[in-house]
Amino acid sequence: MDYSKPFCLDMSLFYLAVFFITLSFSQPQKEIDSLILLLENNTQRDSVRVRLLLTTSFKLRHKDLNEARSLVDEALDISSELKWIKGKALSLRQSGMIYYREGNSLKAVEVWYDALKKSSAIKEAKDFELTIYGNLANVYADSGEFEQALDNYNKFLELAKKLNNRKYQIQALTNIGTLLTEKETRIKEGIQTLEKALAMAKKENIQQYVVSILLNIGLSHKRNEDYSKALTYYQQANKLSRKTGDKYVELLTLNNLCNVNISLSNYHEAEIYAKNTLNMSKEMGSIEWQSSAWESLSHIYETKNNSEKALNAYKKHIKLNDSFASLQNKEKIAKLEAEYQYNQEKNRLKAEADKKQLLAQEEINRQKLMTNTSIYAGSGIVLASIIGFILYRRKQDAVVKSKEAEFKTKVANTELKVLRAQMNPHFIFNSLNSIGSYILNNDTDAANNYLTKFSKLMRHTLENSEREEISLEKDIELLKTYLDIEKKRFSQGFNYDIKIDDALDTKNTLIPPMILQPFVENSIWHGISKLEGNGTISIEVKKNKNVIIYSVDDNGIGRKKSRKSNPSKKESLGIKITKNRIDIINKRKNVNANLKIIDKENGTRVEVTLPLELEFTND
């Protein structure tokens, strides 16, 4: 590991949001309860209810996104019924904020541009446009679109100057300066802009802005490897955060003070800040900060030649970092799925618009034909019929091609998701850690055995990703390898058995590769991992006339208890992917393959019914 550069988590860089400020993460429950009571007492669908719905939605944005979405959708419906353009514009702005928090940035941008079109109906149009430009800039900055972000921040700044709003000017200058420091060639310009924002924030006595700007200037100097200046600004930010009582910002400053002291080789001070970061992050329940603190302590102990403490600290860092990485991967997958669904909906709407335009053009042509003289009426009708027939055929061909393209896209996306699910980053990361642990403990035989199984699984997974079907024998072998690997890294251990119907020729029977793997993974980590003792997984392959019933059965805690322990848990990605794979099989082969998930008193049983496919027949 290269410790010549700072390595603690750099979380100090953030943008001062306009419509959704993220420095405070909670709203008083009493205020929310009062708003909900007002909504219950004001049931009339008028502008008063619209404003109440939007205010309540805004207050709930950090607590319950689903409820916030429900409220803003109702506000948009009422505004449409009333034909109240201002209400629609305000609702669209709030809707965009919720899309952004859900991770659907593309939809947020689309909705905000729609809101801008309606801004002329608002008396305070400049204020409204200002918030939209600020939000658009934040989204573009998050996605790394530098020029578009900078353009929108400058529009935001110009409107703030016209309104003579000092608070918004500070926000604009802070965001512009922060964005500029992300470009290596413009760091100096960015720091100058941030210093200007800092002077204004101090003059206006807005302490919340002062501390955030101090953090961003500190980070900018650290990027420029001027660690002494960075330390000065971080110390000022830490002192101010303790004064204002903002625990989140105080934790942020402690982590960065640890970071920059390590860069300056001030290991004694760095250890104090790392321990303070660790204690406070435990109180706040922050996994990523705890992980960062342990990583820092590992390096500090290493410089003191305390190998045992260094190793223990690093193990704790790896364990926490793995949990945090898993959460980030799930969020990323959810975001990618949201973007895919948005693009699908966009294409569907475009196709409908094209169809309406085509029908409108046909109507215009028909009206023109009716105005022709009776002499050309007969020939006109014949000509119209021919044109209509051609258009109809073209339309039918287009529909067929569209469905084929849609199906091919679904196949391609499903195949990619299957490979991603089997090449699970969480599984790969933990496996490599296990191999590393064996090596550290000088258990070379175990490390070699584990590495052999792991490389075999990866090689076959990549090879089979290009095949629609493999032999049952190879699939069972691959599944055994996967189970052996999971069994080795599963702390409390588990048992498994595989039974194959004697009526099946495993070398000649073909099935989709690793179709049971997601369910085996669920059985291990969501079923039997919650048991106090050892769990058991039973895998069975049976022939029933012209179908194969492929099943996995566990004695874990079952789905009901799993949902109780995690009520917000959604259907797993593996189940969605398998459903898509089965749907593709049914469409390609005109069969009736299906998936059943059976909840037992103790555990879960999954059955996948597939058509019996043979590589060679006796005919």
How would you describe what is shown here?
The chain crosses the membrane at residues 374-392. Keywords: Membrane, TPR repeat, Transmembrane, Transmembrane helix. This is Signal transduction histidine kinase internal region domain-containing protein. InterPro entries: Bact_2-comp_sensor_kinase, HATPase_C_sf, Sig_transdc_His_kin_internal, TPR-like_helical_dom_sf, TPR_rpt. The structure is a single chain. Helix 8 (166-181) runs parallel beside helix 10. Helices cover 70% and strands 7% of the residues. It has 619 residues and is an alpha+beta fold. A five-stranded mixed beta sheet has the order 2-4-5-7-6, covered by helices on one side. The chain has a three-stranded antiparallel beta sheet with strand order 1-3-8. Among the domains are: 26-122, Serine Threonine Protein Phosphatase 5, Tetratricopeptide repeat (Alpha Horseshoe), CATH 1.25.40; 469-614, 2-Layer Sandwich (Heat Shock Protein 90), CATH 3.30.565.10.
Tell me the number of strands: 8
**Tally of helical runs:** 22
Q: Mind telling me the C-alpha Rg?
A: 31 Å
Through-space gap between termini: 63 Å
Tell me the CATH architecture of the domain at 469-614. Answer: 2-Layer Sandwich
Taking all residues together, what is the mean pLDDT? 76
CATH fold-level topology of the domain at 469-614: Heat Shock Protein 90
Protein name: Signal transduction histidine kinase internal region domain-containing protein
Domain Signal transduction histidine kinase internal region: 414-492
InterPro entries: Bact_2-comp_sensor_kinase (IPR050640), HATPase_C_sf (IPR036890), Sig_transdc_His_kin_internal (IPR010559), TPR-like_helical_dom_sf (IPR011990), TPR_rpt (IPR019734)
Transmembrane segments: 374-392
